[in-house]
Write a structure and sequence with these properties.
The structure holds two protein chains of two kinds.
Chain A: E1 5-14, E2 17-27, E3 32-36, H1 43-51, E4 58-63, E5 74-77, H2 91-97, H3 109-122, H4 138-150, E6 156-160, H5 168-181, E7 186-190, H6 194-197, E8 203-208, E9 210-214, H7 221-226, H8 231-236, H9 240-250
Parallel strand pairs in A: 3-7, 3-8, 5-6, 6-7
Antiparallel strand pairs in A: 1-2, 1-4, 8-9
Helix pairs in contact in A: 2-4
Chain B: H1 3-9, H2 13-38, H3 42-62, H4 66-87, H5 92-113, H6 121-126, H7 134-163, H8 165-170, H9 175-192, H10 194-197, H11 202-216, H12 220-245, H13 249-270
Classes of the chains: A alpha/beta, B mainly alpha.
């Protein structure tokens, strides 16, 4: 099966400083890839490249033929901290904004509204659809943005650190939801929390200027050392054998 | 002042024109101001406004209509600021300050070089709504037609880009094109409303009605409508007060708008 998205020998630099070098990554249907790496290691740059927000210096990004360049159904959940919480926009409008994704997934406005309301309903926040986005709690806001990412019925869902600023309860809920969504779409999840994501993802990509793909969700201390993976996260976060223990629990 | 004085005022041609000018200004500033405020580009608009003074000065010097000169300079500044913002290299706020001061500096020099006295200069700096001409009113009406057409055709695109530009870009919207279009509309709105309150005070018409509207709503559409309403009430009452007290209209309009904001803010607080 051809990958949905194929990053082929991608190199990117910001004003002369190399951020990503010779990166290869294939995203197949039903993949669940956890992207980890230190801050400034190029995780967000990788996402921006996939989203087409920036262009690689060299290398090419191939989309499967049924996902032409200007019509790629990628659902995107950005880091919400950059957004203006005072912006006068309702929750429903935020969700509907996700359907501007080409090609327009809806025939008319009513279908679109209904789809948005259904998604909000599934997320358990349809009762606050007319509230301004800034009036929501962190968890509710995250859910609303996930609805926005899903309304275009994407083939690939990309999430940028969805576990920041939400409580542990919502985090668990989110990952359960992702597991269900993963049956219908590939998921690429960026996180700084190796411990948590390795419980849920199927494979792991370590990004630290170069990208090392681990075809399983098991990462050992040796792997990290060999691939020059984000050791700082391990030392600041959960200790390695805890990560492994969780894997065993899961299998 | 008797009731008759008050009613008689509305029969004067110059006052009818001024009244129309407040209606038109409220509509265009209500729409564009909401965009500016929510997108947090008030400073950008200040840069464009002040840059237009260079055009007014040049128009005095070479003897053309000051509004034409102002339009050209404002549009150039708008495109310039947007260009440097997108290409990077210069910090955005620094870039704005450069256009802002360059425009003013050029204006000062051009006015200095203009032979003789330039009697209208003050009316462009501080506004002169009672001397607004029919031709200027037509221009304001034309601007409103353009604004309504653009916001009717692309309301959702404009809203979504203003809210989350990166997401809109990732969705495949022509974000850059919309940014340039809206910047040009900001430039034209600023220039065509200069006669109402002047270069120095125009930012107030683009921000105070929105601040009042924001007390009552957090919905973009309603914010536009309420801004138009509050803008109109504030500028009309300012205009009438200034006429009877015989004080400058532009400044009085600012006072009434700020007063309205203060009163509503306090009412909101104790409700």
């Amino acid at each position: 099966m051809k990958p949905l998205i194929h990053l082929n020998h991608i190199t990117f630099s910001y004003s002369g400083t190399p951020v990503l070098e010779d990166v290869d990554l294939k995203i197949h249907e039903n993949d669940f890839i956890g992207v980890i790496g230190p801050n400034g290691g190029g995780k967000t740059t990788l996402l921006k490249l996939i989203l087409g927000l920036i262009k690689p210096d060299s290398g090419k990004i191939y989309f499967r033929e049924d996902l032409p360049r200007h019509k790629r159904p990628i659902g995107y959940l950005p880091q919400v901290k950059h957004l203006d919480r005072k912006f006068p926009i309702t929750v429903l409008d935020v969700v509907r904004s996700g359907s501007m994704m080409r090609p327009f997934p809806f025939q008319n406005k009513n279908d679109e509204k209904e789809a948005a309301m259904n998604l909000l309903d599934e997320a358990g926040i349809s009762h606050i659809s007319t509230k301004a986005i800034g009036e929501l709690s962190g968890g509710q806001m995250q859910r609303a943005f996930l609805c926005r990412a899903l309304i275009s019925d994407p083939k690939v869902l990309i999430l940028d650190e969805p576990d920041t600023f939400v409580d542990a309860h919502f985090e668990g809920e989110l990952y359960d939801r992702l597991r269900i969504l993963n049956e219908k779409m590939a998921i690429v999840l960026v996180s700084h929390d190796v411990g948590t994501i390795s419980m849920y993802v199927k494979t792991i990509a370590c990004v630290n200027r170069t990208l090392h793909y681990h075809p399983s969700n098991q990462i050992t201390m040796e792997d990290l050392a060999v691939y020059n993976c984000p050791l700082q996260i391990i030392t600041h976060g959960e200790i390695p054998h805890t990560v492994l223990k969780k894997h065993h629990d899961h299998e | 002042m008797t009731m008759n004085d008050f009613l008689e005022l509305f029969s004067y041609g110059f006052f009818q024109k001024a009244l129309l000018a407040t209606v038109f200004a409220s509509i265009s500033c209500g729409i564009i101001g909401t965009y500016i405020v929510t997108r947090r580009i008030v400073f950008v608009s200040g840069g464009i406004t002040h840059a237009s003074f260079g055009g007014i000065g040049l128009a005095f010097l070479i003897g053309v209509d000051p509004l034409v000169g102002a339009s050209v300079f404002a549009l150039l500044a708008a495109l310039g600021i947007q260009f440097f913002t997108e290409k990077g290299g210069v910090r955005e706020d620094s870039s704005i300050a450069i256009w802002w001061s360059l425009g003013m500096a050029l204006g000062v020099v051009f006015v200095f070089l203009t032979p003789g006295y330039t009697p209208n200069l003050m009316s462009y700096l501080f506004g002169s709504i009672l001397t607004v001409s029919s031709y200027e009113l037509w221009a304001m009406l034309f601007l409103i037609a353009i604004l309504l057409a653009v916001f009717y055709a692309w309301f959702r695109e404009i809203l979504y880009i203003a809210f989350d530009e990166e997401f809109a870009r990732a969705s495949g919207l022509h974000v850059s094109g919309f940014n340039y279009l809206l910047m040009m509309l900001i430039a034209l709105t600023v220039v065509l409303n200069i006669r109402v309150v002047g270069i120095i005070l125009i930012l107030s018409l683009l921000t105070i009605p929105q601040a009042i509207a924001n007390l009552f709503t957090r919905d973009f559409r309603k914010m536009i409508l309420l801004s138009i309403l509050f803008g109109f009430v504030g500028s009309l009452s300012g205009l009438i007060i200034s006429y009877f007290l015989n004080i400058p209209s532009g400044a009085t309009i600012i006072f009434t708008l700020v007063l309205m904001f203060g009163v509503f803010r306090i009412i909101k607080r104790f409700k």
